[in-house]
Amino acid sequence: MTGKTADIRSDIAYSTPDRIVVRGKDLPNEILGKMNLGDFAYLQLTSKTATPEQSRMFNALLITLVEHGITPSAIAARMTYAGAPESLQAAVAAGLCGLGTVFVGTTEGSAKMLYEAFDGAGDHPDLQALAAKTVADFRARKQAIPGLGHPVHKPIDPRTPRLFQLAEENGMAGKYVKLVQLIQAEAERATGKVLPINATGALGAICCEFGFPWKIVRGFGVMARAIGLVGHILEESQSPMSYQLWHEIEDRASAHLRG
Amino acid sequence: MTGKTADIRSDIAYSTPDRIVVRGKDLPNEILGKMNLGDFAYLQLTSKTATPEQSRMFNALLITLVEHGITPSAIAARMTYAGAPESLQAAVAAGLCGLGTVFVGTTEGSAKMLYEAFDGAGDHPDLQALAAKTVADFRARKQAIPGLGHPVHKPIDPRTPRLFQLAEENGMAGKYVKLVQLIQAEAERATGKVLPINATGALGAICCEFGFPWKIVRGFGVMARAIGLVGHILEESQSPMSYQLWHEIEDRASAHLRG
Amino acid sequence: MTGKTADIRSDIAYSTPDRIVVRGKDLPNEILGKMNLGDFAYLQLTSKTATPEQSRMFNALLITLVEHGITPSAIAARMTYAGAPESLQAAVAAGLCGLGTVFVGTTEGSAKMLYEAFDGAGDHPDLQALAAKTVADFRARKQAIPGLGHPVHKPIDPRTPRLFQLAEENGMAGKYVKLVQLIQAEAERATGKVLPINATGALGAICCEFGFPWKIVRGFGVMARAIGLVGHILEESQSPMSYQLWHEIEDRASAHLRG
Amino acid sequence: MTGKTADIRSDIAYSTPDRIVVRGKDLPNEILGKMNLGDFAYLQLTSKTATPEQSRMFNALLITLVEHGITPSAIAARMTYAGAPESLQAAVAAGLCGLGTVFVGTTEGSAKMLYEAFDGAGDHPDLQALAAKTVADFRARKQAIPGLGHPVHKPIDPRTPRLFQLAEENGMAGKYVKLVQLIQAEAERATGKVLPINATGALGAICCEFGFPWKIVRGFGVMARAIGLVGHILEESQSPMSYQLWHEIEDRASAHLRG
């Protein structure tokens, strides 16, 4: 393996007996006590220190994704904790496993759609035309447009206007935010349905404004929800619901078999 | 199930079509743009708003646990991503699964030890006597004392003095911090070994100062490391090491079988 | 790394361009079509070919652990699949994460207890005395005796007499099976309660008869339940329950917050 | 919830105090000791008892996927076990999380491709034409054809001829097996490359012969690999490689940072 020692590398962090350095900064002395968790997440991912504007926007982006009540993800984590309370980390992991294309992961779909809309569109694209083409393409493929529509939050998702307001205040209401808004209008026009931009749609656009690769965008929901799930597990440890739910569900689901 | 509808409940959050409320606060209007991620984690877990002192300490506590280079956890996440790049959430989950009694989870052991030391010790315990008893008990059971010793960071773990300094500055250097320091001194005296208080030992004590139940303490490492792992997966997606490592490891491990 | 190439090794399997060899056997030609899955699992773990008796017993042991209706583990897997149907493997993983000290993992506790009972007991131990000591020790520590008692299956767990019958027929009803039976009798006598040997208690004893290290015994439940969970996910994909349950649970749990 | 009690159901299993019934069969008396693990998996998934031919083929199908040496999945499981040896189930779960579109999950892609090729092709399709169309479609989309090619096993994957031989012997070498063989020939002709049908390609075709929905096909690899991973964790517990690998990898990856 000698000949290959140069070719694996990580640029994130290193340790020596008396130092721990993350993204070029001394963790104890340049980071601890001087940065908040969202800013440190920004540093970890981008290798850059967030500006005050980026800090406000990125913290808000992550906070939006932490908690949304008793979700399937929270139920999975609580059920897992019931069987293995000694493995709290495995209960969080179980809850995270379901953050895919249906829940939370839709932020990824929204960011991907917006990046792709601008692909090859030149320096001064007609945003209205891009919106029309995007909606037409999704409709031709009979795919739902990611980031639009919500089963509960309608006619508007209350997080969206606030996120866009923050984007405006922090210099991040650029072409991606505008495009997702035009896509919404066009989609409502084309379908005749009420299709609010949901939180994952707004966040997808903001992720594009930051310049994050779409492949990592799902990761923001994952890291945020890990925090939320620890909250649910704490509550489950103090005031459990999993046992009762289990017995109720089992009884209902197999009643027809027991006759 | 009608008769039982009162008996499952969660006090964390709820949604209506036009509102999302977490711990009694309106998420869009009272939280987004007004709180950092660490403070929101504090709210999620304690249902209380962090004071400025708690905010500094809790953000530092979480940041300490985000990143520590190429750990077994990071390797597991990267290897998982190589096989299922479409399931980023599963790669993070895989990395979290190993945060148990050996790595990261030791914060839990430290907090538990400190809480138990004060059990039944009255209002004005002799801390030196508690330290001596704790060390003697662990030695009698031939167990390592959680939070002491580090394979790399010696004679001191550079995170520890900084964390204790922050505890001091923020009014959190109370009896638990003092006890873990006395336990270290006693353990070094009793064993003749250099046994620095490592980061998980310092953090365990600080978790006790906050009053967090020891059963949830591991969760801080889990939520923090989720952030770190997303950073590793982003890097793996741009500059992978998993394929090369896999082939090298497979070749080495089975060389004796292929003859 | 050159100097260390000798020191990592795996003895399980290796591949060359035209061969795949597992535990010394050519997979395509000596295994496929000539062995059943349980026997291959036995080979994978022990490096030995199961005798007909071992084959019957080991297949029965694993089958016992595959399926037990709508368990917390099955609910976790189904909830995870709802959010990430494209990541079936993550849904199985989520379901497995909860097979810990409360469910399934108790087989481990039973095997450990039985091995430890014989530690230092010499070649011709008095089984009745070992049973009495084991029960007394658990009662002194106020711990439940692993493998005894079941919330549903009483006064007997219907799997246990059948498993012991198979152990008898296949030459595996040795000292561990006898000891767990004596422990049950002693526990019922000492507590005055009905404490059937449950399936994990019977399986723990049978694992000891096989000589499996107790640390790996939980793994049998894990591999078996992976099969069961795929069955649940298949059913969930065809006839889902997770969405309805989610909405019901969320409504109930937060009704008091919405007022 | 009363009004909805009819609408969640599971047809897999149920329990009463003295019975456990899986797919209509009494587990202790009709299954244990009378069925092997592969046949029980078949029952769990299909609700049918395997014929002797189906039994041989299905056991071989699963066994093929159990073990393939030190894979990324095995490395992830071993690394996880190093950090949380008390949570064996979480180590298996971590290893399974990576069985996605790159490894193992390709069986799914192969089955999906074969089913779709026959969609709308009528009762007596021209297999050669379907093969040509399939290859042309994948090439037009610049996608690799699932189930063809292998980095190590070439010019043939040694599992494939044996699996097809078993399919022949057991009456399962029908139109899907023929089509995948024609697709391979066409792909080699069109690309000029050596593209062996790999094990996941052969297994995908055999899954279609069984009639399994393509969405569940990945599950066979997942349940099989769970067995293999328990074998790796057992070996890791007795002869660990994870610590040494970790330290080597960390040293190499961050050497350029430490300078």
UniProtKB/TrEMBL annotation, chains A, B, C, D:
UniProt xrefs under Pfam families: Citrate_synt
Entry keyword set: Lyase, Transferase
EC number(s) per entry: 2.3.3.16
Top-rank taxon: Bacteria
Molecular-function GO term, any one: lyase activity
Pathway(s) of this molecule: Carbohydrate metabolism; tricarboxylic acid cycle; isocitrate from oxaloacetate: step 1/2
PANTHER family named among the record's database cross-references: CITRATE SYNTHASE, CITRATE SYNTHASE, PEROXISOMAL
Family, per entry: Belongs to the citrate synthase family.
Protein name: citrate synthase (unknown stereospecificity)
